[in-house]
Design a protein that fits this description.
Two copies of one chain form a homodimer. By secondary structure, chain A is mainly alpha-helical. In chain A, 66% of the residues lie in helices and 0% in strands.
């Protein structure tokens, strides 16, 4: 990434920025930690080891995604509790893990286009196991979600909406929208990962009880956040143009947040400004 | 298969059997035809062709599975309408198609064990497209299901139960239960396909408004039907033992149906007796 220092409006004094950054780091860290412990409970290494060891490993091997963290942050922004969003956030992480696993699968005829420039990935398991485990992780995520149905709080409709959001992000819609008109995003396989950010924010807003306008704005905010992350992680090409584009998206992302109480958006906004 | 003639209790006269077989063939054919036309509507070949042509092709390329047909038959047996089960049956077919596609994917290191003895599959698309399309078909199935939520009939809880059934059948539970104690079913990758039969029958019973006992019995019936199909399609090993085993499972399957009105089970029972 071009810079690790936060890029924020100049009205903030450096000390305030530093204090907030420290605070925000621990905000995101605490979310990631909560998601991780929920997933560790859901996928213990148990018998048969041949199934659950690869599943456990491949769930936690990929780099963390902010898409799942955004789900929790969006839920909290609209007034929900972390617990309302943690299963959906876990499901989004599982989608990310399954896509990541299959994206790095070695296929017969040639390296996939997105692997040619990437550093080699350490494969602990063979491609057969990676394929099957990825295929097992996808439905497991929906099983977790569907299983969080609770007649006591009558959340079935919300969960079904969340399932639709996730399936669209990782399914055909994510593949179709691969043709991003804004920039040379032509790598089909990476597109679902970026779309997961919009999906994560929308799911969090839905589960936190947000209104339609809040859901839509947070979804767009998440999409910009995902695009920025995708852009900045794809180092080395058109460096100057990329920084400018990231700034444009950052401004558009922050514009979506203007709809919300300015005191409540500090934490969620750092995901596009750090 | 060892025999194409129906094996039924001897109390039926040949003419009755012939008449019923003709009628039943058209019963299953009509179900398959309804599922196919629903899927063709759901997955038209549209732009972008690079996404939807492989998806369409790989959805219809695999051999038909009786698991999806069982879903409709079980729904009708417990008194539901075909329309109640057709989306779930389509989703089950999509699971079958995605699993089939990934089962026949060519991976780098070696042929997968289940491919070594199989006839070669014609691959119209490269492994990269097959992998991504399979990954797109899985979530699309859940999107279809979640999208069949209808506040007018308040079916959200039923749909979530169906999603749980399907995710369990194709997810870790299906992989874990690969160790079938009854026979040398050690091919991990084929197990979800067999489990889909029990799942299909259970989903149909749930959506048709069946009671818990009906759901459980039809699930067990479906599991036996899937095991029989798996056994008989896996030709060439231990022929004599297999026929005997199939007969044992057939008897156990039909025992589950004794719980239901004997006049209503004629059609569904042919799936294990033909």
């Amino acid at each position: 990434r071009p810079s690790t220092s936060p890029v924020r409006p100049s009205c903030h004094k450096p000390t305030t920025v530093a204090a907030r950054v420290a605070q925000n780091l621990s905000y995101w860290d605490s979310i990631h930690s909560d998601i991780e412990s929920r997933l560790k409970k859901a996928i213990p290494i148990r018998e048969p080891i041949s199934v659950f060891e690869p599943m456990h490993h491949l769930t936690f091997a990929p780099p963390k995604t902010t898409a799942s963290a955004l789900c929790v942050a969006a839920c909290e922004l609209v007034g929900g509790n972390r617990e309302d969003a943690i299963v959906a956030a876990s499901a989004i992480h599982l989608m990310h893990a399954a896509i990541y696993t299959h994206d790095h699968l070695m296929l017969t005829d040639r390296l996939r286009s997105d692997q040619e420039t990437e550093p080699k990935i350490q494969h602990r398991f063979g491609p057969n196991i990676e394929l099957l485990t990825g295929d097992g992780i996808f439905p497991f995520a929906f099983e977790l979600l569907a299983g969080s149905m609770d007649p006591a709080v009558d959340n079935s409709d919300k969960i079904l909406r969340v399932i639709i959001e996730i399936t669209r992000a990782v399914g055909t819609e994510g593949m179709v929208d691969g043709q991003d008109s804004d920039v040379e995003f032509d790598q089909l396989s990476c597109q679902p990962l970026r779309r997961l950010h919009g999906c994560g924010a929308a799911c969090g807003a839905i589960l936190g009880g947000g209104g339609e306008e809040e859901v839509e704005r947070l979804k767009r905010y998440g999409v910009y956040a995902g695009k920025i992350q995708g852009l900045l992680s794809d180092m080395g090409r058109h460096e100057g143009g990329k920084v400018k584009l990231a700034e444009k998206w950052r401004a558009l992302a922050l514009k979506e947040l203007e709809y919300f109480d300015s005191k409540k958006i500090e934490q969620i906004s750092t995901i596009v400004t750090m």
